[in-house]
Amino acid sequence: MNLAIRRGFLWPSFEIYGGQSGFYDLGPLGVLLKNNIVELWREVFVKQHQEFVVEIETPIINPAIVFKASGHEEHFTDYAVECTSCHRIFRADHLIEEVLGTNAEGLSEEELNKIIKEHNVRCPVCGGELSTVKKFLLLFQTYIGPYSLENLAYLRPETAQGMFINFKRVYELMKRRLPLGIAQIGKVVRNEISPRQGPIRLREFTIMEIEFFYDEKNPQCELLDERCSDNKIYILTAEQRIQGETKPISILPSEAYKEKIILSPWLAYWMCIAGKFVNMLGIPLEKTYFEEKLPTERAHYSKQTFDQMVLVDKWGKLEVSGHAYRYSYDLERHIVFSKSDLYAVRQLKEPLIVRKRVAKYDKVAILKLFGKQAGDVFKKLAKYSPEELLKILESSQRDEIEIEGMKIPRTVFTVEDVEEKIWVEKFIPHVAEPSFGAERLMYITLEYAYRELEGGRVVLSLPKKLAPIKVGIATLIDKPQFEALASRIYNMLKMKYYVVILEGDSIGKKYAYADEVGIPFVITIDYDSVVEGSTVTVRDRDTRKQIRVPIADLAKVIDLGLEGKDITEFGYPVIEPKD
Amino acid sequence: MNLAIRRGFLWPSFEIYGGQSGFYDLGPLGVLLKNNIVELWREVFVKQHQEFVVEIETPIINPAIVFKASGHEEHFTDYAVECTSCHRIFRADHLIEEVLGTNAEGLSEEELNKIIKEHNVRCPVCGGELSTVKKFLLLFQTYIGPYSLENLAYLRPETAQGMFINFKRVYELMKRRLPLGIAQIGKVVRNEISPRQGPIRLREFTIMEIEFFYDEKNPQCELLDERCSDNKIYILTAEQRIQGETKPISILPSEAYKEKIILSPWLAYWMCIAGKFVNMLGIPLEKTYFEEKLPTERAHYSKQTFDQMVLVDKWGKLEVSGHAYRYSYDLERHIVFSKSDLYAVRQLKEPLIVRKRVAKYDKVAILKLFGKQAGDVFKKLAKYSPEELLKILESSQRDEIEIEGMKIPRTVFTVEDVEEKIWVEKFIPHVAEPSFGAERLMYITLEYAYRELEGGRVVLSLPKKLAPIKVGIATLIDKPQFEALASRIYNMLKMKYYVVILEGDSIGKKYAYADEVGIPFVITIDYDSVVEGSTVTVRDRDTRKQIRVPIADLAKVIDLGLEGKDITEFGYPVIEPKD
Question: What is the predicted ipTM?
């Protein structure tokens, strides 16, 4: 973290105004690294699934109705306690965990109050007495237009609702095909109570998520077998956790689904892809596992949730993605609140035969009874379906039925049983949601890349594709001829990569800086370069081996190197590292 | 716009809840197009200037102090009127312009009230009487943590303040070199009063801006001559506008600076780049000009502002970027409000000689007077600089000077004139700011790409690099053999590009759909493809010419084509369009 702040990856926001917990800025290197991680996610989750996953972008500010419908206004809360003396505010469950060392997540108001009273938990800062716990809404609130209740709006805590309320539009655009994934990458905000974990518990961060809609009767999840039978994933089930076990089981995602450890096949699929993705960030498979949430820990919308945990030094483990089986909860709620049709349509192979009782009427009898007025009667009756007519008949015991002020004898109606063949069926798709936090991914990427070598040398072995700056240029000595060539190569490469001309008292210091910020390749301009003017060396950050390359071949060598190929195998002369 | 909505580029947000003006969603094609425009901006403005322009990312939610300091809390307002009958709210100047047809931008509260009264302007919806105008703060407001005045926060209306409050950190990271550009791309929100211009006046949108810091005594703006002497830009000056002229002048950016039409050399430089950039979106140079804002129209922080206007069908002209000379305003304000050092340092070539009067004291005299106590006296005196001692001397007429309770005779002090050589100088850099709205750029890109051909055929001639989907795959007839080959090519290309397998009753309809959504290249699988199994045709959207290409060469052909090269010149057999 020190290195990350010193080198400009990130730092606490609003420093000149004394800071504001839960907010971090990304510096120049941080933006490049984060963008590279976001792009890799987009490639793996969207582009490689572009047949059925599309990306949309929806607003951060939402009218309150959206989060009323989603249940967040009611459920997206934490319990807070206030110190009655210094008026500091704490998240009740975190405070209890901090003071007593027991997990208090998901406890009720009464339970929290009881623990605080019984154990006499006091303010950890001033020792003051604590208030009773209060429910605190974690949604940031604002008003669209002038201040007034009807203009109340919330800032989104997840991008998901943007996909749910737009499901029908995108479903139509995608020609009503399921499965359908709607992805979104964007900022979300959560009004956390006193966040105190630096860049890990942020009030504002970037989320990357997919709401994946599928027909639960026909999931069409062949990919689960096709693409996920090479790697097992590690899962710590809720059952294991209740029994106090801490060692995750290792299982194929498809087996986990078959054995009902994972309840949705698409949840299993995206967990498999999540495992591969986190591995691409440089995290070994055995350092990450999926922890199933207990029912008390799950969000209100979820039938089953797995958090993808990565082992880290400072916090032991860190949640980098969440995998929730949101089944049909959100669409159902929006159907109720908006009265819109958010259904999908299922073509049936066999028609559904539906039997029902209906009321029909005898046209001839009506003609005879009403004469010239019969036309009016038919017009009025036509407004009602046979089922509705039956209801009207059944709702009265009289001999004459009254319909829109017109009295019609019950005798003209007959009640019949009919059969109907139905070829399509409306249904609410189920949803599997993989959801990633970009800043946390950045954090684990930095942590796993950080290596201290003998002699205190630091190397940031970022996956080459993710490195913020791809190429460093170093002159062996700082003389005009060397610098002119450095500048020529810089101008040649900067259109393609982020490049830096390294500065420092010696070539060793230049390499040390490049290693520290994770630059994969350093081009060195030495005496031979200046004399011939046509070759330079390229040094690989991780092996420290160098090759001598014609300047004209540089872009090609770097491109292949960034793809992960070993540059010493391209046939150029290899220079072994001296130290 | 109809096409854009129908094909899923964008649509109004929150439709299922009746909509919310000022918010738009981007659909699948819209996200791809916007991301391509954002990436092009990043390439042109950041990557190609990476020696001195770096990108950072800062929060959307800011403690109120930031926008107090920036002056937004006081100045970022519009005047609103409310209908006393239906309670609709209108922006006063827009309403006057709509009803009376006169420009009312920048008028004072009194002036607006006077016009409304004199012309009896009434509610355009219900005809009701209007209230007097009220100042309306355009910042969205929220609270970080619980509701309380000290937790007041604003959502940023520009990213700029993130760069200003971080200036010192980035300046240090960049080794205290100027000029220095700090760029940011991100969401901003403005609580516009009743926005009614569809996707043009948004309450939430993506901004791309650079705060460009330079030493106004040594701007080092050689690039203005080096890179901007090939293209003139069009400027409509404030003076011209006051005189009622509407025809912009055409001038080289460097000349515009020399002739003091543009007051900052770097503002001129970035306006030159802005012209080139908008041209890359497919807008001819003569369809865009820079309109200088009148003093009443300028934001509070600006010494001079130019809006880059693009001629459009619906609104006549549309502002797509703003170029403000913010000079030292923002840093000065943050220095005052935060008491932080946000200065840059200028190395002087010649030392500054500063003469000043100071007070010195005679050590021997003090030793004689105070004996053993002299040590104490020296310790106390050492806390004060010679200038401070002079002030103390001058503040009293007595013979004995009192310093920290100790009385010292005036006689031990002498007042002298001294000279000091100063080699560095602190100063506040000046700032030129180019600022672009991504959604408006998307709008003009779509408008200028839209072409209706004979027979009502629509082609979206997007610059190939910006097209959302790069490749369409069409089978001449929909038979299994054709479809299998289409699927093989799809899987081959989807790792690299966004690709779509075209659907439709005929090959003509497939091409028509591809043209409508701007797909640059369509690969057609015809009888020859199936028989030989090794060649297909590639059709260019704009020329409608096709070439016959081996499948193995497809990626190469498409890559070169996307770079803008004419695919018919690669030596493959060319098939002229039939219609």
Answer: 0.88
